[in-house]
Design brief:
The termini are far apart. The protein is an alpha+beta fold and about 350 residues long. The radius of gyration is 22 Å and the shape is globular. The chain binds zinc ion (ZN). The site of zinc ion has 5 residues, from helix 3.
Length: about 350
């Protein structure tokens, strides 16, 4: 019997990506699908808030209230182990804990009573350095609570809610859902329930609905009209990374060997023979210190990201995303002789096969 009193992840509202009018359906779908994914090979640095003054301040009728964002070691360990579990699937992303928030893409708080949530994929880059990109609103050490840590990290990797997959074909008893989530322990307003449950997502890949996904909420009986059997039985995902979750994340972020990247020479135009979603990676070893331009060419939407190798680790230097725009991705950066860089170009979609390329000069 599904747990009927479970507290659920509630994503913060984010403005939808503005896509120019008049794009082809293919181009639109690719932008929605890839738009918040990381380029593969990215190292995500995560940080746990640790300062006495790190917390939420609200002014109530009784005066100011302070809720700390700092979590105990056992809470942090649950998150560390969950990052390790995702990494253990053999993916091309890396996760490193850092102790300086300005170094971190992912900044994690444990404010009780403020829900559990994460921004999705590259959306975290738009969040201020003093702000959380992820919060855990309840104890992660109780039986079954590990699912929350795995789920929120799934969002940070760019995964959405599986029960909002349009291929699921779920027809909700909407008023029953609003009433359920409006009560304890979630106390969500209708907008939050709509955004996290009722609304169907666009740009979902694959045609399979995975009711065992870590990204799927549990639902008690009586909330689903169709498929009718789930209305009777409810849905009770096991709270682990499912085999389809693993396949999905490996498809987006396949394991990679950084030693394999070919070297890109200045003024050498490299054709990109990529299918939608695929990525090309090149090393850049400048022979002079000066301003350079790194650019993609051709009838394609790409995200192009440049990393610098620092102490054996690739650090983000610059990135551009030209999706949906009548231009190509272009980075203007000062590169230094004797240093090494890696440029990664991920293709959203192209509309004339094999006509796109990357070059630096
Ligand atoms: Zn969620």
């Amino acid at each position: 019997m599904p747990d009927t009193t479970v507290a659920l992840c509630g994503l913060p509202p984010t403005p939808a990506r503005v896509v120019p009018a008049g794009l082809s359906r293919n181009r639109m779908d690719a932008i929605i699908l890839l738009g918040n994914k990381w380029v593969n090979g990215t190292t995500l640095r995560y940080y746990f808030f640790d300062g006495e003054s790190d917390g939420s301040r609200t002014v109530t009728s009784d005066g100011a209230e302070f809720v700390t964002w700092v979590g105990g070691k056992e809470q942090q360990d649950a998150v560390r182990e969950s990052f390790a579990e995702w990494k253990g699937l053999g993916i091309g992303l890396d996760f490193i804990e850092v102790f300086d928030r300005s170094e971190a893409e992912v900044r994690i708080g444990f404010a009780r009573g403020e829900g559990s949530w994460s921004y999705v994929g590259r959306d975290v880059l738009g969040i201020g350095v003093g702000e959380r990109t992820m919060n855990f609103g309840w104890d992660l050490t109780t039986p079954g609570a590990r699912r929350t840590a795995l789920h929120e990290i799934g969002h940070t990797l760019g995964m959405m809610h599986e029960h909002q997959n349009p291929f699921a074909g779920i027809v909700w008893d909407e008023e029953a859902v609003y009433a359920e989530l409006g009560g304890p322990p979630n106390f969500w307003d209708r907008e939050k329930t709509f955004n996290n449950i009722i609304r169907k997502l666009e740009g979902v890949s694959g045609s399979t609905w995975d009711a065992t996904s870590i990204m799927h909420y549990p639902f008690r009986p009586g909330l689903i009209l169709t498929p009718a059997e789930f209305g009777v039985s409810g849905i009770s995902p096991p709270g682990t990374i499912s085999s389809l979750d693993a396949a999905y994340i490996r498809e987006w972020y396949p394991a990679m060997d950084s030693a394999d990247y070919p070297t890109l020479k200045p003024f050498e135009s490299r054709p990109l023979s990529l299918n939608a979603g695929q990525q090309a990676d090149y090393r850049i070893r400048p022979d002079a210190t000066r301003e350079y331009t790194v650019r993609s060419f051709g009838p394609a939407d790409t995200v192009t990201v440049l990393f610098e190798e620092v102490d054996g680790e690739l650090r983000y230097l610059a990135g551009d995303d030209d999706a949906g725009q009548p231009r190509n991705a272009e980075l203007k950066v000062r590169l230094f002789k004797g240093r090494e860089y890696v440029v990664r170009v991920r293709l959203y979609t192209s509309w004339e096969s094999n006509q796109s390329a990357v070059m630096y000069w």
